[in-house]
Amino acid sequence: MFRGVHNLTIDAKGRLKIPTRHQAQIDKTCAGKMVLSIHPDDNCLLLYPLGDWQKLEHKVSELPSLNIHTKRLKRKLIGHATDCELDKASRILIPATLREYAKLNKKLIMSGQGHNFELWDEDAWHKQIANLDSLSKREEIPTEITQLSL
Q1: CA dist., res. 126 & res. 20, Å (int)
Q2: Is residue 13 situated within a structural domain?
Q3: Residue 93: in which H helix or E strand, if any?
Q4: What end-to-end distance do the CA atoms of the chain give, in Å?
Q5: What angle do CA 100, 104, 77 make, to 5 degrees?
Q6: Quick one: CA torsion of 90, 105, 107, 15, rounded to 10 degrees?
Q7: Is residue 56 in some structural domain?
Q8: Angle, nearest 10°, between helix axes 50-61 and 20-30?
Q9: Residue pLDDT tens, the chain, 150 long
Q10: Which stretches make up the SpoVT-AbrB domain (predicted)?
Q11: Does some domain include residue 101?
Q12: Angular region, 37: left φ>0, alpha ψ -120 to 50, beta rest
């Protein structure tokens, strides 16, 4: 499981070094082979180990193809998917088109989401968190969350 929030930087060539604490797990689960794509609803990128990506891609491909939501999801998520592999320095190359989509500059946030990571521009991440906090105060808490014991 990938967890934690990491403050990272992208080098001049668009490469991102994966935090040390995740390198062994990535090497073990997917031999450094990963998939990077855009988030269909947020201005961030999604980074998956290849096996987890393939499971998600299979689920998406099984959805009804004539449904407008399925088309949108496929075109955004699968259409922008890019294979990437950790190099010897445990870095991945983020293609310019994906960096532009997520407006990634030098500083970014890598947030573990269990089976994948989200990659955010640092400023956009802080705005997103503040926005989610504000929105959650206006809505009723779902029963599933109220029953969760921390």
Answers
A1: 24
A2: yes
A3: strand 91-93
A4: 18
A5: 60
A6: 10
A7: yes
A8: 60
A9: 999 999 999 999 999 999 999 999 999 999 999 999 999 999 999 999 999 999 999 999 999 999 999 999 999 999 999 999 999 999 999 999 999 999 999 999 999 999 999 999 999 999 999 999 998 888 888 888 888 878
A10: 5-52, 81-124
A11: yes
A12: beta
CATH of residue 9? 3.40.1550.20
Contact 122, 10 (CB under 8 A): no
134 located within any domain: no
Alpha-carbon separation of residue 137 from 25, 28, 83, 124, 141 (angstroms): 36, 40, 38, 20, 9
Q: Report d(CA 101, CA 115) in Å as an integer.
A: 22
Per-residue pLDDT tens digits for 77-97: 999 999 999 999 999 999 999
Provide the domain count of the chain: 1
| Dihedral angle over CA of 112, 17, 40, 127, nearest 10 | 70
